[in-house]
Amino acid sequence: MASIFDTKIEYLKGIGGPRAELLNKELGIFTYGDLLEHYPFRYEDRTRFYKISELTDTLPAAQLLGKIKSVELVGGKGKSRLVATFSDGVASMELVWFQGVSYFHKILQIGANYIVYGKPSLFGGIFSIQHPEIELYKSDRPLPKYFQPIYHLTDKLRKKFIESKTFTQWFRTLLPLVQEHIHETLPEFLLKKYKLVSKKEAYYYLHLPRSPLEQLHANRRLKFEELFYNQIKLISLSLVRKNEYPGQVFNKTTLLTKFYQDHLPFDLTGAQKRVIREIFGDLKSGRQMNRLVQGDVGSGKTIVAFICMLMAIDGGAQACMMAPTEILAQQHFSNLKKFADALELEIRLLTGSSTKKEREEIHQGLITGQIHILVGTHAVLEDVVQFQNLGLCVIDEQHRFGVAQRAKLWEKNKKLYPHMLVMTATPIPRTLAMTLYGDLDISEIDELPPGRKPIKTVHRFESSRLAVWGFMKEELAKGRQIYVVFPLIEESEKLDLKNLFDGYENIRAAFPEFAVSIVHGKMKPKDKEYEMQRFKKGETQIMVATTVIEVGVDVPNASVMVIESAHRFGLSQLHQLRGRVGRGAEQSYCILMTDYKLSADTRKRMETMVESENGFYISKVDLELRGPGDLSGTQQSGLVDLKLANLAKDEEILKIAREEAFTILQMDPSLSMPEHKAIQMHLSRIRNKSLSWSKIS
């Protein structure tokens, strides 16, 4: 049934057809409901009026009251600007317009009182405000003092004189119109427990605040609601899966004990042992496991995955491991094969490069159960790949795979869905993990193996190029190997490839006595593999590459990572690239090369890399700088559909919202109790937005 919130915005007084069309296109606002949820992102204090003598050019903005003394058109045709002299009775300043010149020339009244608002700038000893907000003031009414919400706008809207103030006028009309239709969406007991304002009050306080305290109350209430419903959806999916999807029971540890006693070449870290215990708990529970294991590059996730595979094999099942690239799949296969051979287990590799004969053997071996472990790329997903009894799927670098691809793996066992172990070397801040993967159980390997030397990271400008090359020569003379990485981004691909090839030629010229490899994503897989192997065998000493090596080749002898144009990489990508070195016993180095001109955010990224090697800390800074959208790297963006809540700053609210959602769903999974009626009703209204894929993993 249509509600008042479905009313098209052209019917709101002050909007009309042309403006509605503009709002549709520019901001995706079509209905009263959309307008109500177009939230301000900050507020301006319009309670204070400045004197011109109090202005400084460090002020972000100032509000003044005064008279227009004169108006003058300056400059020739096509380049004219409008300059008005504005006085508060004691001092004068200028108001300047470069756009809308003829409009303001027409409407400005000399001698009239105006309220002016904008950013003051000092030029030639005179203050001016460019493109000020300006409003005629009639002295028979009190001076307006209020807090102005600031909304996201576009240039097209501004050109049609739609400003934040325009939105405020619309909200003054809209809110009284819809207030009796605004239903409470949170249970009474939660409102009381956390002293939250009602939904109706929250909308008034957000869009028409009378004080900073009202703003605060509105934000707190609406952020809690957003995060609470986000968690209700995720936790209910998780509970449904745990209750509805049984899993194979793997509780034997014979193979595991043999491996520990006879073949494990090093001691596991405390973190690895903890994570293995958590996974073992899932595998013997009788419920299908969906667990995310996150840990830094080099924290030992692969050996944890192998140990879990042994539990599945001990239980009479098969295991498979899927990686996003052939290089990474090949590396996992090589690392695991020596352990599998020692235990007399059959392990095979399936990639796009596998021959027809190899494929036929693999398909046969999987169906008969002769193959215990399959390592592969997307090739594993093909319908022809069928198992006798697939018990455990390990997905490496999970952000490279969409949910649909994981669903295909899930269906490789029709009797009992396989257990899912998802691994990532891109640590995700806990807040983001709770919202992106709230339906997954999460384990963290937050400890590196002993004996690893920290990687020394430095930031160098282009002027230090010769010094950097000198340092590279010293390392090469010690017999070490070096990566030099260039950005390759689709939008500027041609230019980036040119830079890569230029860089390759420069390095060959600067290091004539050393062999240089080049690898980039445009090469054929077999050519890429050939170059990677040459580097791995030590036939080439320098590898010039794009980010294809971000996940991939493991060369313990490579001790230097030079990242060119480091300012063009995100923090998590820089951290991943750095993790390619520091794999041997020698001291390793990462050199970040950039231009001089850097934004504040970029400077912060470089400083963070130099200061810290902790992936969890780095990912937290990344979240603060970039927001969740860029970080998630998944095709599950619907889960982080947050308009007000900020995952970098609202961790405390998220924790409380998650705890409350969990308690409610454990007590009343169907939300049928009278006190949960508001939740059930709100969920039925938003159900069409829910994710059909989320139950998969």
TrEMBL record:
Residues 471-629 form the Helicase C-terminal domain. Residues 282-445 form the Helicase ATP-binding domain. PROSITE patterns: HELICASE_ATP_BIND_1 (PS51192), HELICASE_CTER (PS51194). One of its GO terms (biological process) is DNA repair. Gene3D superfamilies: Nucleic acid-binding proteins, P-loop containing nucleotide triphosphate hydrolases. It is an enzyme of class 5 (isomerase). It holds the Pfam family DEAD. Keywords: ATP-binding, DNA damage, DNA recombination, DNA repair, DNA-binding, Helicase, Hydrolase, Isomerase, Nucleotide-binding. Its EC number is 5.6.2.4. GO terms for molecular function: 3'-5' DNA helicase activity; ATP binding; ATP hydrolysis activity; DNA binding. The keyword Transcription regulation does not apply. Plays a critical role in recombination and DNA repair. Helps process Holliday junction intermediates to mature products by catalyzing branch migration. Has replication fork regression activity, unwinds stalled or blocked replication forks to make a HJ that can be resolved. Has a DNA unwinding activity characteristic of a DNA helicase with 3'-5' polarity. This is ATP-dependent DNA helicase RecG. It comes from Leadbetterella byssophila (strain DSM 17132 / JCM 16389 / KACC 11308 / NBRC 106382 / 4M15).
